[in-house]
What we know:
Elements: H1 12-22, H2 27-34, H3 38-45, H4 54-64, H5 68-72, H6 85-94, H7 98-105, H8 117-130
Helix pairs in contact: 2-3, 2-4, 6-8
Amino acid sequence: MNVEGRCTQMAVGDRIRLRREEKSMTAADLARMAGVTKGYLSQIETGQVPKPSGEVLYNLATVLGTTVADLLEKEIMPNTLNIPDALKTFAEQEHLPNSDIDMLAMIKFRGRQPETVDDWRFLYESIKRTIAD
């Protein structure tokens, strides 16, 4: 996934696996915490179950700290965020998920945003250190 290719379609199982890996979770941990079997989660992630129930998606999203809309790759509201060039560069270098890019793009202090890649990196690392997973 890259910043420019934000609309690229991924299967729901691929997005679940990606979010799980971003959280450094094992499939067994996610399955247990979401109340499904490891085998069923594996079937979802590999596309053998392309449309899990709403309840299962909700449980997976909750454990992964995201939304069902994110897992389904549906926008709740149109994305009109302006992503500064320095943030795009930083996001591509660090392979940031779209949710992190969007969060950073919304940050302004006294109407201003960071201007350099290093400034975006400092801000992102500060947030990661402050907010425990």
